[in-house]
Amino acid sequence: xxxxxxxxxxxxxxMQPPSTLTVKDSLYLTDMLSWNLLAMKxxxxxxxxxxxxxxxxxxxxxxxxxxxxxxxxxxxxxxxPSQPNNNYQ
Length: 89
Prior knowledge:
The chain is mainly alpha-helical.
């Protein structure tokens, strides 16, 4: 119980993303994009394969959710700050 409390207290929320990404960060983002793309494709495939309309509807919603996550990750990666970082002058 004490360890769990300490872990929760030591959590730091990042208010702004870092200005650079590490190789590990890049690999993790690539994995997240791949997972969501694969899940989206599988949901679409199975939605087309089933006869039950309620299951088909659920699978389509599931695929749309993964597509939304994929697009959201991409939008974060394509973010252009309004002011350039002038710390390197």
